[in-house]
């Protein structure tokens, strides 16, 4: 079902008078003809008393107009003026208007000075129809949004009022608003379903690692301190094999005053070296932006440790085990928290036979890759769903003769 004219409307033709090109009963006008700015304000100098509900920009969801929060405030403790809104008003975020924070007030309350409050002329326009229009790409395309140096984009009240709108009869406005409400509710349900799947997919790697490193053969094997399993190159040159030096023409990362240029090729860390972030937040195996080439060797700055596993442990085993534990609990320091080499060296690592390591970590990596592909597909699906509201609004508010 399309949100534009009904068949009966189309059969009536278009006007050639004051609203040329529009169906009978439609009017082209300024948005300000349907809106009135509400100027009611609560100001501390007036010594207000009592409590009220505050709804700021942060409490309105972009694009949907859904309220996602509010704060109860003591008016006697207000530190600045607050605009008042009434139930049924449109509360419009004029700061960064492309965020489409347009809310129909569900109750009386207060909002921030970054929001305008509009009362809708009910005899002329449906409040829901107007709110959807103000969230639409059509409105943003027609609105003159100011961008000045040092300030966020914004729009003035007279500029909102000057935006042109094609206004159908009230019954048609309500039909279009109802269609949008129904379609966007379906979009919200689809988004929630994919977000639920995504949450489960994102939790899967940790669960897979728990299954591997919590199995009996790992729990019963001997553990060794990290320091006994690796050669460390913390802050030193990382030696390369001659075969690796032959590949120096490939992509590398340079870390310096000019920022990151390109990236480190996989061969440097794939199967030989492991980078561990100093803050303990993550591992940086394979490609990394904190290593750079100099005179045929690689250097690492002070924000990571470089290690090379010895013969009794596989790099994949070491990497996946460290990913399975909370490295941040080994981080110390308050002013500049860091994972010191001393703390890293003391971490106990279970070391089953190489055959067991190879079997377990090989299967784990395959499952992690499958989980990553599934997560990526869900993210792409979520992006596609995220584009639907704008597309539906663009469809609803295209000029009716198009």
> In percent, how much strand structure appears in the residues?
15-25%
Shape: elongated
- Helical percent range? 25-40%
Gyration radius over CA: 30 Å
Tell me the span between the first and last alpha carbons. 17 Å
User: How confident is the prediction overall: mean pLDDT?
Assistant: 81
Tally of individual helices: 11
CATH fold node name of the domain at 27-167: Adenine-n6-DNA-methyltransferase TaqI, Chain A, domain 2
The second-level CATH architecture of the domain at 27-167 is: Alpha-Beta Complex
> Unreliable stretches, pLDDT < 50, 5 or more residues?
1-16, 235-271, 285-298
Structure, described:
- With 402 residues, this protein is of the alpha+beta class.
- Among the domains are: 27-167, Adenine-n6-DNA-methyltransferase TaqI, Chain A, domain 2 (Alpha-Beta Complex); 222-351, Alpha-Beta Complex (Adenine-n6-DNA-methyltransferase TaqI, Chain A, domain 2), CATH 3.90.220.20.
- Helices cover 34% and strands 18% of the residues.
- It contains eleven helices and 20 strands.
- It has helices at 7-11, 127-135, 137-142, 157-162, 170-213, 216-219, 242-245, 315-324, 341-346, 354-386, 388-396, and strands spanning 27-30, 35-37, 41-42, 51-54, 71-74, 82-85, 90-93, 102-104, 109-110, 115-120, 164-167, 223-225, 230-232, 254-256, 259-261, 274-277, 291-294, 297-300, 304-309, 348-350.
- The strands form eight sheets. A four-stranded antiparallel beta sheet has the order 2-10-7-8, with helices on one face.
- A hairpin with a 2-residue loop joins β14 (254-256) and β15 (259-261).
- Mean pLDDT is 81; it is low at 1-16, 235-271 and 285-298.
